[in-house]
Hints:
Structural class: alpha+beta
Strand content: 15-25%
Largest sheet: 2 strands, antiparallel
Shape: elongated
Number of domains: 1
Number of helices: 3
Radius of gyration: 22 Å
Amino acid sequence: MLNSFDVTGSALTAGRLRLDVIANNIANVETTRTSEGGPYQRRSVVLQNGGDDFSSIFRREIDRLPLSANPTTNNSSRGVQANRITRDSSPPEMRYDPDHPDANEDGYVAYPNVDLVREMTDLLMANRAYSANSSAFDVTKNMVHSTNNLGR
């Protein structure tokens, strides 16, 4: 049961990072010049369960059914991990704006490859996942509390 706290806690931490990255993408939707040069590039969080892909996790969990309560089992691979933040390598959006200070010789400005509709959709999905994990954490907490009260 305590492992459930680890899993939902790691999912909440990863979800918060995902929300922060999406908010950063939205905030930089018009940033045409960065310190690295060129327009802002969309970023995304790569989340993995315990650092493994889904199929290897599935095989490992199936092999262990029913789940072992052995305290020597290595639980460090359980939960969600944010492995890295990647940059979207798709080309920037080119807009004709000859009066813009970052316009090229043809009058086009390179804008970030951030699509607001996609970001808002990702934001809603990340928010719902965060809420679901928060609810799972509360349910687990209530189960532990109820279990502790059984002996009274």
